[in-house]
Amino acid sequence: MRTTRILALAAVGVLGGALAACGGDSADDTAAAGSAGGPITVKASDTTCEVAKNAVDAGTSVFTITNGGNKVTEFYVYAPGDRVMGEVENIAPGLSRELHVELPSGTYETACKPGMIGKGIRAALTVSGSAAPLTDDAKLADATASYSRYVKSQTGALLPKTEEFVAAVKAGDVDKAKALFPIARTYWERIEPVAEIFGDLDPKIDGREEVIEEGMEFTGFHRLEKDLWAAKPDVSKDGPIADQLLTDVKEIVAKANAEKLSPLQLANGAKGLLDEVATGKITGEEDRYSHTDLWDFNANVEGSKAAIASLRPVLEERDPALVKTLDTEFANVDTTLTKYREGDGWKLHNKLTEADLKGLSDAINALAEPISKVAAVVSKK
Amino acid sequence: MSDSSLSRRRAIALAGVGVAGVTGAAAIGSALVKGSAGDTTPHPVEGAVAFTGEHQAGIVTPAQDRLHFVAFDVITKDRERLIGLLKDWTAAAARMTAGRDAGEIGAVGGVPEAPPDDTGEALGLPPSGLTITVGFGPTLFRDATGKDRFGLAAKRPPALDDLPHFPGDVLDDSLSGGDLCVQACANDPQVAVHAIRNLARIGMGVVSVRWSQLGFGRTSSTSTTQTTARNLFGFKDGTANLKLEETDLLREHLWVQPGDGPDWMTGGSYLVSRKIRMIVETWDRSSLAEQEMIVGRQKGTGAPLGKSGEFEEPDLEAKGADGEPLLALRSHVRLAHPTTNGGARLLRRGYNFVDGSDGLGRLDAGLFFIAFQRDPRKQFVPIQRSLSRQDEMNEYLKPVSLGLFACPPGVSGPDDFWGRALFI
Question: Rounded to two decimals, what is the model's pTM?
Answer without folding.
Answer: 0.82
